[in-house]
Amino acid sequence: MAELTAFHFRPGTSLLHTLDVRFKILSFVLISISSFKAYPSALSVLTLVIFYAILISCLPFKSILKELRYFFVLLVFIFIVRAMFTSASPVVDFKESAVAWQGIYDGALICWRLLIVVLFGLIFVSTTRPSDIRTAVEWFLMPFPFIPGKRVATMMSLIMRFVPLILDQARETIDAQRSRGVENRKNPVYRLIKLIIPLMIRTFKKADKLAVAMEARCYSEKRTNKALLSAKSDWITLFGVICLSILLSIIDT
């Protein structure tokens, strides 16, 4: 059996697993908005909250770091670009660019914010069933008659299911290439092409098989959804997140 990645739903009995998905979505939106406006003091508080959420959810921390390794490369690239192309008093001069303390600070701040949002999104995906997300999205879109809520919710549910599948396909393709010695090639463009093309072919084939299977089973977007019931713990959690957002805004002032 293939090992689950960090982006798969992992069943559990923790507080985050049992919360109403509507309240989790609202909490995630509030925390994301707060993090994009946060500074080091507030970001430190959010980082502690993330570690606590990972701890109570029993999520594999090593697996999370492994799955985000390419995202860390992107963060390093963003940091370097921000540090080298910020107009301020330079600390280190290069031939055509310079590194300034303001650029280093801005780059670290942007990367920290992005990392917090991604980690919260990963925790949300790992503790929420895709079917529950579909039901919640449809519930949120009910007041808007001009938006096909069922169709949008179905599409989002399929996306949530396909993201882990694509990651699994990428891992299998990398393992297959490693067994054939492709990683020994020094040309990174060659290795990238040999990864992307088979991955796209396998992904499109999976999508085509899924579409055929849905048609064969007369799948319809008009389905009976799971009843959404809120409990006292949901309201307490949402109130706590609201208080946390207010606290973060106060810390930064």
Number of domains: 1
In DSSP terms, counting alpha (H) and pi (I) runs of 4 or more, how many helices?
10
How helical, in percent, are the residues? over 70%
Mean pLDDT comes to 79
Share of residues in strands: under 5%
Q: What ranges have pLDDT less than 50 throughout 5 or more consecutive residues?
A: none
Question: Shape from CA axes?
Answer: globular
Largest sheet: 2 strands, antiparallel
Category from helices, strands and their pairing: mainly alpha
Task: Give the SSE order as H and E letters.
Answer: HHHHHEEHHHHH
GO cellular component, one term: plasma membrane
Organism: Candidatus Desulfaltia bathyphila
Transmembrane segments: 38-59, 71-92, 104-125, 235-251
Protein name: Energy-coupling factor transporter transmembrane protein EcfT
